[in-house]
Protein backbone atom coordinates (compact mmCIF):
# COMPACT_ATOMS: atom_id res chain seq x y z
CA UNK A 1 0.00 0.00 0.00
CA UNK A 2 1.54 3.22 -1.19
CA UNK A 3 -0.73 5.42 0.83
CA UNK A 4 -0.30 5.19 4.57
CA UNK A 5 -3.23 4.93 6.92
CA UNK A 6 -4.55 8.16 8.32
CA UNK A 7 -7.47 8.21 10.70
CA UNK A 8 -8.26 11.79 9.71
CA UNK A 9 -9.98 11.04 6.43
CA UNK A 10 -12.70 9.08 8.24
CA UNK A 11 -13.27 11.72 10.90
CA UNK A 12 -15.16 14.99 10.97
CA UNK A 13 -13.10 18.01 11.85
CA UNK A 14 -14.26 18.09 15.47
CA UNK A 15 -12.41 17.91 18.76
CA UNK A 16 -12.76 14.47 20.36
CA UNK A 17 -14.28 14.64 23.86
CA UNK A 18 -12.58 11.63 25.46
CA UNK A 19 -10.36 11.84 28.55
CA UNK A 20 -6.59 11.48 28.25
CA UNK A 21 -5.64 7.81 28.43
CA UNK A 22 -9.09 6.55 27.45
CA UNK A 23 -9.21 3.20 25.68
CA UNK A 24 -11.71 4.56 23.18
CA UNK A 25 -8.86 6.11 21.18
CA UNK A 26 -7.41 2.63 20.64
CA UNK A 27 -10.78 1.17 19.65
CA UNK A 28 -11.50 4.03 17.26
CA UNK A 29 -8.07 3.87 15.68
CA UNK A 30 -8.13 0.09 15.40
CA UNK A 31 -11.60 -0.01 13.87
CA UNK A 32 -10.76 2.61 11.24
CA UNK A 33 -7.46 0.93 10.47
CA UNK A 34 -9.32 -2.34 9.89
CA UNK A 35 -11.79 -0.56 7.62
CA UNK A 36 -8.91 1.03 5.71
CA UNK A 37 -7.05 -2.25 5.32
CA UNK A 38 -10.19 -3.89 4.00
CA UNK A 39 -10.08 -1.31 1.23
CA UNK A 40 -12.91 1.01 2.21
CA UNK A 41 -11.90 4.47 1.05
CA UNK A 42 -14.76 5.98 3.01
CA UNK A 43 -17.59 4.85 5.30
CA UNK A 44 -20.41 5.23 2.77
CA UNK A 45 -21.18 1.49 2.87
CA UNK A 46 -21.62 1.64 6.65
CA UNK A 47 -24.37 2.83 8.96
CA UNK A 48 -23.45 3.22 12.61
CA UNK A 49 -25.88 2.97 15.49
CA UNK A 50 -24.98 3.73 19.07
CA UNK A 51 -26.74 4.43 22.35
CA UNK A 52 -25.70 6.55 25.31
CA UNK A 53 -22.31 6.44 26.96
CA UNK A 54 -18.74 7.40 26.13
CA UNK A 55 -18.17 4.69 23.52
CA UNK A 56 -21.47 5.53 21.82
CA UNK A 57 -19.72 8.74 20.83
CA UNK A 58 -17.15 6.83 18.75
CA UNK A 59 -19.16 7.10 15.54
CA UNK A 60 -21.53 9.92 16.50
CA UNK A 61 -20.89 12.44 15.11
CA UNK A 62 -17.15 11.95 14.65
CA UNK A 63 -17.21 9.43 11.79
CA UNK A 64 -17.87 10.91 8.36
CA UNK A 65 -20.73 8.48 7.90
CA UNK A 66 -24.39 7.93 8.62
CA UNK A 67 -24.76 7.51 12.35
CA UNK A 68 -27.86 7.15 14.49
CA UNK A 69 -27.25 8.03 18.14
CA UNK A 70 -30.22 6.54 19.99
CA UNK A 71 -31.57 6.58 23.55
CA UNK A 72 -29.63 4.58 26.15
CA UNK A 73 -29.54 0.87 25.35
CA UNK A 74 -31.65 1.15 22.23
CA UNK A 75 -29.04 1.12 19.47
CA UNK A 76 -29.72 -2.50 18.51
CA UNK A 77 -33.48 -2.06 17.90
CA UNK A 78 -32.76 0.93 15.66
CA UNK A 79 -30.04 -1.07 13.89
CA UNK A 80 -32.65 -3.81 13.39
CA UNK A 81 -34.89 -1.44 11.44
CA UNK A 82 -32.01 -0.16 9.35
CA UNK A 83 -30.60 -3.61 8.54
CA UNK A 84 -33.96 -5.18 7.65
CA UNK A 85 -34.71 -2.34 5.24
CA UNK A 86 -31.21 -2.03 3.80
CA UNK A 87 -29.56 -5.48 3.99
CA UNK A 88 -26.73 -4.42 1.69
CA UNK A 89 -25.31 -1.96 4.24
CA UNK A 90 -22.72 -2.78 6.90
CA UNK A 91 -24.56 -1.92 10.09
CA UNK A 92 -22.19 -1.52 13.02
CA UNK A 93 -23.23 -0.84 16.61
CA UNK A 94 -20.83 0.77 19.06
CA UNK A 95 -21.72 0.80 22.72
CA UNK A 96 -20.47 0.44 26.22
CA UNK A 97 -21.08 -2.40 28.64
CA UNK A 98 -23.86 -0.46 30.37
CA UNK A 99 -25.53 0.28 27.06
CA UNK A 100 -25.26 -3.18 25.49
CA UNK A 101 -25.53 -5.60 28.42
CA UNK A 102 -27.01 -3.34 31.12
CA UNK A 103 -30.07 -1.42 30.00
CA UNK A 104 -30.00 -2.89 26.47
CA UNK A 105 -29.25 -6.53 27.29
CA UNK A 106 -32.49 -8.01 26.04
CA UNK A 107 -32.07 -6.36 22.63
CA UNK A 108 -28.54 -7.78 22.45
CA UNK A 109 -29.71 -11.32 23.20
CA UNK A 110 -32.61 -11.12 20.78
CA UNK A 111 -30.51 -9.71 17.93
CA UNK A 112 -28.10 -12.64 18.38
CA UNK A 113 -31.01 -15.08 18.55
CA UNK A 114 -32.50 -13.65 15.34
CA UNK A 115 -29.06 -13.71 13.74
CA UNK A 116 -29.45 -10.12 12.66
CA UNK A 117 -26.53 -9.35 10.37
CA UNK A 118 -24.88 -6.59 12.34
CA UNK A 119 -21.53 -6.16 14.07
CA UNK A 120 -21.72 -5.07 17.70
CA UNK A 121 -18.52 -3.68 19.20
CA UNK A 122 -18.85 -3.38 22.95
CA UNK A 123 -16.26 -1.27 24.70
CA UNK A 124 -16.22 -2.80 28.16
CA UNK A 125 -14.69 -0.35 30.63
CA UNK A 126 -16.36 -2.22 33.49
CA UNK A 127 -18.07 0.92 34.76
CA UNK A 128 -20.59 3.65 33.94
CA UNK A 129 -17.97 6.18 32.89
CA UNK A 130 -19.97 9.05 31.45
CA UNK A 131 -22.14 9.36 34.55
CA UNK A 132 -19.18 9.37 36.90
CA UNK A 133 -18.09 5.83 37.70
CA UNK A 134 -21.03 3.81 38.97
CA UNK A 135 -20.98 0.01 39.23
CA UNK A 136 -21.82 -1.85 35.99
CA UNK A 137 -22.99 -5.40 35.19
CA UNK A 138 -19.37 -6.01 34.13
CA UNK A 139 -17.58 -4.61 37.19
CA UNK A 140 -15.30 -7.25 38.77
CA UNK A 141 -16.38 -8.51 42.19
CA UNK A 142 -15.36 -6.38 45.17
CA UNK A 143 -14.41 -3.28 43.18
CA UNK A 144 -14.88 0.18 44.61
CA UNK A 145 -17.07 2.41 42.47
CA UNK A 146 -19.10 5.51 43.33
CA UNK A 147 -22.19 3.40 44.01
CA UNK A 148 -20.28 0.53 45.66
CA UNK A 149 -18.06 2.45 48.07
CA UNK A 150 -17.53 -0.74 50.12
CA UNK A 151 -16.72 -2.82 47.05
CA UNK A 152 -19.11 -4.30 44.50
CA UNK A 153 -21.10 -7.26 45.76
CA UNK A 154 -22.25 -8.81 42.46
CA UNK A 155 -20.55 -11.06 39.93
CA UNK A 156 -19.77 -9.61 36.51
CA UNK A 157 -21.36 -10.81 33.28
CA UNK A 158 -19.48 -12.71 30.58
CA UNK A 159 -20.89 -10.92 27.54
CA UNK A 160 -18.83 -12.76 24.92
CA UNK A 161 -20.10 -16.14 26.15
CA UNK A 162 -23.63 -14.81 26.44
CA UNK A 163 -23.46 -13.91 22.74
CA UNK A 164 -22.44 -17.50 21.94
CA UNK A 165 -25.34 -18.93 23.93
CA UNK A 166 -27.77 -16.53 22.27
CA UNK A 167 -26.73 -17.60 18.77
CA UNK A 168 -24.08 -15.19 17.51
CA UNK A 169 -22.13 -16.22 14.40
CA UNK A 170 -19.00 -14.65 15.79
CA UNK A 171 -17.98 -13.68 19.29
CA UNK A 172 -14.58 -12.53 20.49
CA UNK A 173 -13.04 -10.67 23.41
CA UNK A 174 -9.84 -8.64 23.38
CA UNK A 175 -8.45 -5.79 25.39
CA UNK A 176 -7.03 -2.44 24.39
CA UNK A 177 -3.63 -3.95 25.19
CA UNK A 178 -4.10 -6.31 22.21
CA UNK A 179 -4.74 -3.91 19.31
CA UNK A 180 -3.27 -6.15 16.58
CA UNK A 181 -5.45 -9.10 17.52
CA UNK A 182 -8.41 -6.76 17.85
CA UNK A 183 -7.80 -5.37 14.39
CA UNK A 184 -7.64 -8.81 12.78
CA UNK A 185 -10.80 -9.74 14.62
CA UNK A 186 -12.64 -6.62 13.41
CA UNK A 187 -11.52 -7.31 9.84
CA UNK A 188 -12.78 -10.86 10.05
CA UNK A 189 -16.07 -9.78 11.63
CA UNK A 190 -16.76 -7.10 9.01
CA UNK A 191 -16.35 -9.71 6.27
CA UNK A 192 -18.64 -12.22 7.98
CA UNK A 193 -22.43 -12.50 7.81
CA UNK A 194 -24.85 -12.83 10.68
CA UNK A 195 -24.69 -11.46 14.20
CA UNK A 196 -21.13 -10.66 15.20
CA UNK A 197 -19.94 -9.50 18.59
CA UNK A 198 -16.60 -8.15 19.70
CA UNK A 199 -16.00 -7.16 23.30
CA UNK A 200 -13.04 -4.90 23.96
CA UNK A 201 -12.02 -4.65 27.60
CA UNK A 202 -10.91 -1.06 27.83
CA UNK A 203 -9.35 1.27 30.38
CA UNK A 204 -11.22 4.13 31.97
CA UNK A 205 -8.55 5.75 34.12
CA UNK A 206 -10.89 8.60 35.10
CA UNK A 207 -13.99 6.85 36.37
CA UNK A 208 -12.73 3.31 37.06
CA UNK A 209 -8.98 3.21 37.44
CA UNK A 210 -8.45 5.81 40.11
CA UNK A 211 -11.05 4.32 42.46
CA UNK A 212 -10.08 0.73 41.72
CA UNK A 213 -6.43 1.41 42.63
CA UNK A 214 -4.78 2.08 39.26
CA UNK A 215 -2.57 5.14 39.15
CA UNK A 216 -2.99 5.78 35.43
CA UNK A 217 -3.98 4.30 32.06
CA UNK A 218 -0.62 2.56 31.67
CA UNK A 219 -1.17 0.63 34.90
CA UNK A 220 -4.52 -0.54 33.61
CA UNK A 221 -3.03 -1.70 30.32
CA UNK A 222 -0.39 -3.63 32.29
CA UNK A 223 -3.20 -5.21 34.30
CA UNK A 224 -4.88 -6.29 31.05
CA UNK A 225 -1.65 -7.77 29.71
CA UNK A 226 -0.83 -9.64 32.90
CA UNK A 227 -4.32 -11.04 33.40
CA UNK A 228 -5.35 -11.81 29.82
CA UNK A 229 -5.51 -15.54 29.16
CA UNK A 230 -6.16 -16.98 25.69
CA UNK A 231 -9.38 -18.95 25.67
CA UNK A 232 -7.56 -22.10 24.47
CA UNK A 233 -5.52 -22.17 27.69
CA UNK A 234 -8.52 -21.93 29.97
CA UNK A 235 -9.67 -25.51 29.44
CA UNK A 236 -7.02 -26.87 31.75
CA UNK A 237 -7.51 -24.17 34.36
CA UNK A 238 -9.70 -24.39 37.45
CA UNK A 239 -12.39 -21.89 38.33
CA UNK A 240 -10.17 -20.62 41.12
CA UNK A 241 -7.27 -20.06 38.72
CA UNK A 242 -9.57 -18.15 36.35
CA UNK A 243 -10.84 -15.77 39.02
CA UNK A 244 -10.39 -12.13 37.97
CA UNK A 245 -8.74 -13.17 34.70
CA UNK A 246 -9.69 -11.69 31.34
CA UNK A 247 -10.29 -14.49 28.87
CA UNK A 248 -9.40 -13.30 25.39
CA UNK A 249 -9.81 -14.84 21.97
CA UNK A 250 -12.55 -16.08 19.69
CA UNK A 251 -15.44 -17.89 21.36
CA UNK A 252 -17.38 -18.88 18.27
CA UNK A 253 -17.18 -18.65 14.51
CA UNK A 254 -20.02 -20.24 12.58
CA UNK A 255 -22.60 -19.82 9.85
CA UNK A 256 -26.32 -19.62 10.43
CA UNK A 257 -29.10 -18.44 8.17
CA UNK A 258 -29.81 -14.78 8.88
CA UNK A 259 -33.13 -13.13 9.64
CA UNK A 260 -32.71 -10.99 6.52
CA UNK A 261 -32.48 -14.10 4.33
CA UNK A 262 -35.54 -15.57 6.02
CA UNK A 263 -37.67 -12.42 5.84
CA UNK A 264 -36.93 -11.71 2.20
CA UNK A 265 -37.69 -15.34 1.30
CA UNK A 266 -41.08 -14.96 3.00
CA UNK A 267 -41.80 -11.70 1.18
CA UNK A 268 -41.00 -13.35 -2.14
CA UNK A 269 -43.27 -16.27 -1.36
CA UNK A 270 -46.10 -14.07 -0.02
CA UNK A 271 -45.98 -11.84 -3.07
CA UNK A 272 -46.00 -14.81 -5.44
CA UNK A 273 -48.96 -16.52 -3.76
CA UNK A 274 -50.84 -13.21 -3.39
CA UNK A 275 -50.34 -12.62 -7.11
CA UNK A 276 -52.04 -15.93 -7.92
CA UNK A 277 -55.25 -14.97 -6.12
CA UNK B 1 -53.80 -9.09 -4.71
CA UNK B 2 -51.90 -6.09 -3.48
CA UNK B 3 -53.70 -3.18 -1.91
CA UNK B 4 -57.21 -3.88 -0.70
CA UNK B 5 -59.67 -3.34 -3.52
CA UNK B 6 -62.10 -0.42 -3.39
CA UNK B 7 -65.49 -1.54 -2.15
CA UNK B 8 -67.62 -2.07 0.91
CA UNK B 9 -66.49 -4.43 3.64
CA UNK B 10 -67.44 -5.54 7.11
CA UNK B 11 -64.19 -5.08 8.99
CA UNK B 12 -62.83 -4.85 12.47
CA UNK B 13 -61.27 -1.50 13.39
CA UNK B 14 -57.86 -3.14 13.60
CA UNK B 15 -58.13 -4.38 10.03
CA UNK B 16 -59.24 -0.95 8.82
CA UNK B 17 -56.17 0.48 10.52
CA UNK B 18 -53.88 -2.12 8.93
CA UNK B 19 -55.32 -1.69 5.44
CA UNK B 20 -55.27 2.09 5.82
CA UNK B 21 -51.62 1.91 6.75
CA UNK B 22 -50.81 -0.15 3.67
CA UNK B 23 -52.68 2.24 1.39
CA UNK B 24 -50.89 5.17 3.06
CA UNK B 25 -47.62 3.50 2.06
CA UNK B 26 -46.56 1.76 5.28
CA UNK B 27 -43.96 -0.88 4.48
CA UNK B 28 -42.44 -1.56 7.88
CA UNK B 29 -44.25 -2.49 11.06
CA UNK B 30 -42.85 -3.67 14.38
CA UNK B 31 -44.95 -4.51 17.40
CA UNK B 32 -45.25 -6.46 20.61
CA UNK B 33 -48.38 -8.42 21.55
CA UNK B 34 -50.82 -6.53 23.74
CA UNK B 35 -54.57 -6.51 24.14
CA UNK B 36 -56.43 -4.83 22.46
CA UNK B 37 -53.90 -3.91 19.73
CA UNK B 38 -52.59 -7.37 18.75
CA UNK B 39 -55.00 -7.76 15.82
CA UNK B 40 -53.31 -4.83 14.08
CA UNK B 41 -49.98 -6.70 14.26
CA UNK B 42 -51.65 -9.90 13.09
CA UNK B 43 -53.25 -8.26 10.06
CA UNK B 44 -50.02 -6.58 9.07
CA UNK B 45 -47.96 -9.74 9.63
CA UNK B 46 -50.08 -11.35 6.92
CA UNK B 47 -50.55 -8.38 4.63
CA UNK B 48 -47.26 -6.50 4.59
CA UNK B 49 -45.17 -9.30 3.00
CA UNK B 50 -47.79 -9.48 0.22
CA UNK B 51 -47.03 -5.89 -0.72
CA UNK B 52 -43.26 -6.28 -0.28
CA UNK B 53 -43.19 -4.91 3.25
CA UNK B 54 -41.83 -6.19 6.55
CA UNK B 55 -43.70 -6.91 9.77
CA UNK B 56 -41.74 -8.12 12.76
CA UNK B 57 -42.57 -8.91 16.36
CA UNK B 58 -39.90 -7.45 18.60
CA UNK B 59 -38.89 -8.36 22.16
CA UNK B 60 -40.74 -5.45 23.76
CA UNK B 61 -42.37 -2.13 22.99
CA UNK B 62 -39.15 -0.14 23.22
CA UNK B 63 -37.58 -2.38 20.60
CA UNK B 64 -40.72 -2.12 18.47
CA UNK B 65 -40.68 1.65 18.24
CA UNK B 66 -36.88 1.62 17.98
CA UNK B 67 -37.04 -0.68 14.97
CA UNK B 68 -39.59 1.48 13.18
CA UNK B 69 -37.45 4.57 13.81
CA UNK B 70 -34.46 2.80 12.26
CA UNK B 71 -36.59 1.73 9.30
CA UNK B 72 -37.89 5.27 8.90
CA UNK B 73 -34.31 6.54 8.59
CA UNK B 74 -33.75 3.76 6.06
CA UNK B 75 -36.51 5.36 3.97
CA UNK B 76 -39.73 3.51 4.83
CA UNK B 77 -43.09 4.70 6.07
CA UNK B 78 -43.46 2.98 9.42
CA UNK B 79 -45.92 2.15 12.18
CA UNK B 80 -46.23 0.39 15.52
CA UNK B 81 -49.36 -0.43 17.52
CA UNK B 82 -49.84 -0.91 21.24
CA UNK B 83 -52.05 -0.19 24.23
CA UNK B 84 -51.57 1.75 27.49
CA UNK B 85 -48.80 -0.27 29.21
CA UNK B 86 -46.84 -0.55 25.96
CA UNK B 87 -47.50 3.08 25.17
CA UNK B 88 -45.87 3.98 28.50
CA UNK B 89 -42.78 2.00 27.50
CA UNK B 90 -42.63 3.77 24.14
CA UNK B 91 -42.45 7.24 25.65
CA UNK B 92 -38.64 7.50 25.57
CA UNK B 93 -38.57 6.82 21.84
CA UNK B 94 -41.56 9.11 21.17
CA UNK B 95 -39.44 11.96 22.52
CA UNK B 96 -36.53 10.71 20.44
CA UNK B 97 -38.65 10.64 17.27
CA UNK B 98 -39.78 14.19 17.99
CA UNK B 99 -36.23 15.40 18.67
CA UNK B 100 -34.72 13.67 15.63
CA UNK B 101 -37.68 14.54 13.38
CA UNK B 102 -38.42 10.95 12.46
CA UNK B 103 -41.78 10.35 10.76
CA UNK B 104 -43.60 7.43 12.37
CA UNK B 105 -47.11 6.43 13.40
CA UNK B 106 -47.87 5.03 16.86
CA UNK B 107 -51.31 3.47 17.37
CA UNK B 108 -52.56 3.31 20.96
CA UNK B 109 -55.73 1.26 21.38
CA UNK B 110 -56.60 2.51 24.86
CA UNK B 111 -57.69 0.14 27.58
CA UNK B 112 -58.48 0.63 31.25
CA UNK B 113 -55.58 1.67 33.46
CA UNK B 114 -53.51 2.54 35.46
CA UNK B 115 -51.01 -0.32 35.10
CA UNK B 116 -52.38 -3.58 33.74
CA UNK B 117 -55.85 -2.41 34.73
CA UNK B 118 -58.51 -4.23 32.76
CA UNK B 119 -56.73 -5.39 29.66
CA UNK B 120 -59.76 -6.23 27.55
CA UNK B 121 -61.88 -3.26 28.60
CA UNK B 122 -62.18 0.08 26.90
CA UNK B 123 -60.90 3.29 28.46
CA UNK B 124 -59.86 6.80 27.47
CA UNK B 125 -57.30 7.42 30.16
CA UNK B 126 -54.31 8.06 27.88
CA UNK B 127 -55.36 11.45 26.51
CA UNK B 128 -52.91 13.38 28.65
CA UNK B 129 -50.18 10.77 28.28
CA UNK B 130 -50.48 11.06 24.52
CA UNK B 131 -49.73 14.77 24.87
CA UNK B 132 -47.32 14.90 27.79
CA UNK B 133 -46.00 11.34 28.12
CA UNK B 134 -42.39 11.89 27.19
CA UNK B 135 -40.12 14.35 28.97
CA UNK B 136 -39.11 17.81 27.89
CA UNK B 137 -40.74 20.50 25.80
CA UNK B 138 -42.56 19.05 22.85
CA UNK B 139 -45.71 19.18 20.78
CA UNK B 140 -47.80 16.20 19.83
CA UNK B 141 -50.17 15.41 17.01
CA UNK B 142 -52.84 13.02 18.27
CA UNK B 143 -55.80 11.77 16.23
CA UNK B 144 -58.96 10.18 17.61
CA UNK B 145 -61.17 7.96 15.42
CA UNK B 146 -64.75 7.09 16.35
CA UNK B 147 -65.67 4.46 13.76
CA UNK B 148 -64.13 1.70 11.71
CA UNK B 149 -64.31 3.97 8.68
CA UNK B 150 -62.36 6.59 10.61
CA UNK B 151 -59.78 4.04 11.78
CA UNK B 152 -59.01 3.71 8.09
CA UNK B 153 -59.15 7.41 7.21
CA UNK B 154 -57.26 8.68 10.26
CA UNK B 155 -54.55 6.03 9.90
CA UNK B 156 -53.92 7.38 6.40
CA UNK B 157 -53.99 10.91 7.77
CA UNK B 158 -51.59 9.99 10.58
CA UNK B 159 -49.04 8.89 7.98
CA UNK B 160 -49.60 12.03 5.93
CA UNK B 161 -49.07 14.32 8.92
CA UNK B 162 -46.02 12.36 10.08
CA UNK B 163 -44.43 12.60 6.66
CA UNK B 164 -45.39 16.22 6.10
CA UNK B 165 -44.13 17.53 9.44
CA UNK B 166 -41.36 14.94 10.05
CA UNK B 167 -42.70 14.05 13.46
CA UNK B 168 -44.27 11.12 15.33
CA UNK B 169 -48.07 11.04 15.07
CA UNK B 170 -50.24 9.15 17.54
CA UNK B 171 -53.47 7.48 16.50
CA UNK B 172 -55.27 7.41 19.83
CA UNK B 173 -57.89 4.76 19.33
CA UNK B 174 -59.55 2.68 22.02
CA UNK B 175 -60.57 -0.91 22.60
CA UNK B 176 -64.09 -0.34 21.29
CA UNK B 177 -63.15 1.28 17.99
CA UNK B 178 -60.28 -1.17 17.46
CA UNK B 179 -62.29 -4.31 18.18
CA UNK B 180 -65.74 -3.54 16.80
CA UNK B 181 -66.86 -4.53 13.34
CA UNK B 182 -68.65 -2.14 11.06
CA UNK B 183 -69.34 -1.41 7.46
CA UNK B 184 -66.46 0.38 5.81
CA UNK B 185 -65.95 1.66 2.30
CA UNK B 186 -62.46 1.54 0.87
CA UNK B 187 -62.29 4.40 -1.61
CA UNK B 188 -60.69 4.34 -5.02
CA UNK B 189 -56.96 4.65 -4.61
CA UNK B 190 -56.86 7.85 -6.64
CA UNK B 191 -59.25 9.41 -4.12
CA UNK B 192 -56.94 8.71 -1.18
CA UNK B 193 -54.49 11.53 -0.57
CA UNK B 194 -51.05 10.28 0.43
CA UNK B 195 -48.10 12.45 1.39
CA UNK B 196 -44.45 11.46 1.10
CA UNK B 197 -41.69 13.11 3.09
CA UNK B 198 -39.57 15.69 1.34
CA UNK B 199 -36.26 13.92 0.81
CA UNK B 200 -32.82 15.47 0.79
CA UNK B 201 -31.43 15.91 -2.69
CA UNK B 202 -27.98 17.13 -3.59
CA UNK B 203 -25.45 18.61 -1.27
CA UNK B 204 -27.38 20.50 1.37
CA UNK B 205 -26.31 19.09 4.73
CA UNK B 206 -28.72 21.04 6.97
CA UNK B 207 -30.79 17.96 7.73
CA UNK B 208 -32.07 19.49 10.97
CA UNK B 209 -32.70 23.12 10.28
CA UNK B 210 -32.82 26.17 8.06
CA UNK B 211 -36.23 25.16 6.73
CA UNK B 212 -39.16 24.79 9.12
CA UNK B 213 -39.51 21.14 8.11
CA UNK B 214 -36.11 20.22 6.68
CA UNK B 215 -35.88 17.63 3.88
CA UNK B 216 -34.93 14.24 5.33
CA UNK B 217 -32.02 12.12 4.10
CA UNK B 218 -32.08 8.32 3.97
CA UNK B 219 -29.18 6.45 5.55
CA UNK B 220 -26.98 4.51 3.18
CA UNK B 221 -27.26 7.06 0.39
CA UNK B 222 -24.05 8.94 1.07
CA UNK B 223 -25.40 11.93 2.95
CA UNK B 224 -23.33 11.28 6.10
CA UNK B 225 -26.20 12.23 8.36
CA UNK B 226 -25.59 12.27 12.12
CA UNK B 227 -28.89 11.60 13.88
CA UNK B 228 -29.02 12.24 17.62
CA UNK B 229 -31.59 12.69 20.36
CA UNK B 230 -29.16 15.04 22.08
CA UNK B 231 -29.47 18.74 21.34
CA UNK B 232 -27.94 19.33 17.91
CA UNK B 233 -27.45 22.09 15.39
CA UNK B 234 -28.80 22.22 11.82
CA UNK B 235 -26.10 19.78 10.72
CA UNK B 236 -26.80 17.17 13.40
CA UNK B 237 -23.74 18.05 15.47
CA UNK B 238 -24.27 17.60 19.20
CA UNK B 239 -24.25 20.66 21.46
CA UNK B 240 -24.86 19.43 24.98
CA UNK B 241 -24.32 22.71 26.83
CA UNK B 242 -25.11 25.60 24.47
CA UNK B 243 -28.36 27.33 25.53
CA UNK B 244 -28.87 29.06 22.17
CA UNK B 245 -28.61 25.87 20.10
CA UNK B 246 -31.08 24.13 22.40
CA UNK B 247 -33.59 26.97 22.40
CA UNK B 248 -33.44 27.37 18.64
CA UNK B 249 -33.91 23.65 17.99
CA UNK B 250 -36.71 23.05 20.48
CA UNK B 251 -38.58 26.19 19.47
CA UNK B 252 -38.46 25.20 15.81
CA UNK B 253 -39.59 21.64 16.56
CA UNK B 254 -42.59 22.98 18.46
CA UNK B 255 -43.43 25.81 16.10
CA UNK B 256 -43.46 23.59 13.03
CA UNK B 257 -46.55 22.01 14.59
CA UNK B 258 -48.06 24.96 16.46
CA UNK B 259 -47.72 27.26 13.42
CA UNK B 260 -49.80 24.87 11.34
CA UNK B 261 -52.58 24.24 13.86
CA UNK B 262 -55.32 25.22 11.44
CA UNK B 263 -54.12 22.73 8.84
CA UNK B 264 -53.68 19.96 11.39
CA UNK B 265 -56.96 20.45 13.27
CA UNK B 266 -59.81 18.22 12.21
CA UNK B 267 -63.20 18.09 13.88
CA UNK B 268 -66.89 17.64 13.31
CA UNK B 269 -69.18 20.30 14.71
CA UNK B 270 -72.90 20.85 14.86
CA UNK B 271 -74.92 23.87 15.85
CA UNK B 272 -72.17 25.50 17.90
CA UNK B 273 -73.29 28.96 16.79
CA UNK B 274 -76.74 28.53 18.28
CA UNK B 275 -76.98 26.20 21.24
CA UNK B 276 -77.76 26.31 24.92
CA UNK B 277 -75.97 23.07 25.69
CA UNK B 278 -72.68 22.09 24.11
CA UNK B 279 -70.94 18.72 24.10
CA UNK B 280 -67.25 18.16 23.46
CA UNK B 281 -66.46 14.56 22.73
CA UNK B 282 -64.06 12.18 21.00
CA UNK B 283 -63.39 8.51 20.27
CA UNK B 284 -65.85 5.78 21.20
CA UNK B 285 -67.66 8.05 23.68
CA UNK B 286 -68.65 10.43 20.90
CA UNK B 287 -70.83 7.73 19.34
CA UNK B 288 -73.45 8.57 21.99
CA UNK B 289 -73.80 12.23 21.11
CA UNK B 290 -75.91 11.91 17.95
CA UNK B 291 -78.85 10.21 19.59
CA UNK B 292 -78.60 12.34 22.72
CA UNK B 293 -78.64 15.56 20.69
CA UNK B 294 -81.59 14.38 18.61
CA UNK B 295 -83.60 13.56 21.75
CA UNK B 296 -82.65 16.82 23.44
CA UNK B 297 -83.74 18.79 20.40
CA UNK B 298 -87.06 16.95 20.29
CA UNK B 299 -87.58 18.30 23.80
CA UNK B 300 -86.82 21.80 22.53
CA UNK B 301 -83.30 22.15 23.92
CA UNK B 302 -80.87 23.64 21.45
CA UNK B 303 -77.85 21.40 21.60
CA UNK B 304 -74.56 21.58 19.72
CA UNK B 305 -71.38 19.53 19.74
CA UNK B 306 -67.76 19.43 18.80
CA UNK B 307 -66.30 16.03 18.05
CA UNK B 308 -62.52 16.08 18.13
CA UNK B 309 -60.81 14.07 15.39
CA UNK B 310 -57.55 15.69 16.43
CA UNK B 311 -57.25 15.99 20.20
CA UNK B 312 -53.78 17.49 20.11
CA UNK B 313 -52.98 20.20 19.25
CA UNK B 314 -56.05 21.30 21.20
CA UNK B 315 -58.56 23.47 19.27
CA UNK B 316 -58.83 26.33 21.79
CA UNK B 317 -60.35 28.75 19.32
CA UNK B 318 -63.40 26.69 18.40
CA UNK B 319 -63.99 25.55 21.98
CA UNK B 320 -64.06 29.22 22.96
CA UNK B 321 -66.57 29.88 20.19
CA UNK B 322 -68.82 27.18 21.64
CA UNK B 323 -68.36 28.58 25.15
CA UNK B 324 -69.45 32.01 23.95
CA UNK B 325 -72.85 30.58 22.93
CA UNK B 326 -73.56 27.69 25.24
CA UNK B 327 -74.53 28.04 28.87
CA UNK B 328 -73.11 24.66 29.70
CA UNK B 329 -70.60 22.36 28.02
CA UNK B 330 -70.64 18.64 28.83
CA UNK B 331 -67.47 16.59 28.34
CA UNK B 332 -68.26 12.86 28.41
CA UNK B 333 -65.12 10.74 28.83
CA UNK B 334 -64.17 7.23 29.92
CA UNK B 335 -61.66 8.62 32.40
CA UNK B 336 -61.83 10.81 35.48
CA UNK B 337 -61.75 13.98 33.37
CA UNK B 338 -58.89 14.80 31.01
CA UNK B 339 -60.18 16.70 27.97
CA UNK B 340 -62.61 18.26 30.48
CA UNK B 341 -59.77 20.34 31.96
CA UNK B 342 -58.71 21.50 28.51
CA UNK B 343 -62.27 22.55 27.65
CA UNK B 344 -62.54 24.40 30.94
CA UNK B 345 -59.24 26.17 30.24
CA UNK B 346 -60.18 27.08 26.67
CA UNK B 347 -63.66 28.28 27.70
CA UNK B 348 -62.12 31.00 29.87
CA UNK B 349 -65.09 30.97 32.24
CA UNK B 350 -67.64 31.80 29.54
CA UNK B 351 -69.62 28.59 30.05
CA UNK B 352 -70.09 26.11 32.83
CA UNK B 353 -68.06 23.03 31.97
CA UNK B 354 -69.22 19.68 33.33
CA UNK B 355 -67.34 16.41 33.32
CA UNK B 356 -69.44 13.32 32.66
CA UNK B 357 -67.08 10.53 33.45
CA UNK B 358 -67.31 6.77 33.65
CA UNK B 359 -64.50 4.33 34.32
CA UNK B 360 -64.05 0.58 34.55
CA UNK B 361 -65.50 -2.49 32.95
CA UNK B 362 -65.34 -0.93 29.51
CA UNK B 363 -68.87 0.36 29.89
CA UNK B 364 -69.64 3.10 27.43
CA UNK B 365 -71.43 6.32 28.24
CA UNK B 366 -74.91 5.86 26.81
CA UNK B 367 -77.04 8.43 24.95
CA UNK B 368 -79.51 8.20 27.85
CA UNK B 369 -76.87 9.16 30.40
CA UNK B 370 -75.78 12.02 28.23
CA UNK B 371 -79.40 13.11 27.80
CA UNK B 372 -79.89 13.16 31.58
CA UNK B 373 -76.91 15.51 31.87
CA UNK B 374 -78.26 17.70 29.05
CA UNK B 375 -81.67 17.91 30.72
CA UNK B 376 -80.14 19.00 34.02
CA UNK B 377 -79.58 22.25 32.14
CA UNK B 378 -77.74 24.19 34.77
Strand and helix map with partners:
The complex is a heterodimer of chains A (277) and B (378).
Chain A: H1 24-37, E1 46-50, E2 66-69, H2 75-85, E3 90-96, H3 97-103, H4 105-114, E4 118-124, E5 127-128, E6 134-135, H5 159-166, E7 170-175, H6 179-191, E8 196-201, H7 205-212, H8 217-227, E9 228-230, H9 239-242, E10 246-253, H10 259-276
Helix pairs in contact in A: 1-6, 3-4, 4-5
Chain B: E1 7-12, H1 13-24, E2 26-31, H2 38-50, E3 54-57, H3 61-73, E4 77-82, H4 84-89, H5 91-100, E5 104-112, E6 118-122, H6 127-132, E7 141-143, H7 148-165, E8 168-174, H8 175-179, E9 181-186, E10 226-228, H9 243-258, H10 261-264, E11 267-270, E12 277-282, H11 289-298, E13 303-308, E14 310-312, H12 316-325, E15 328-333, H13 339-347, E16 352-357, H14 367-375
Parallel strand pairs in B: 2-3, 2-4, 4-5, 5-8, 7-8, 12-13, 12-15, 15-16
Antiparallel strand pairs in B: 1-9, 5-6, 7-14, 11-13
Helix pairs in contact in B: 1-2, 1-7, 3-5, 11-14, 12-13
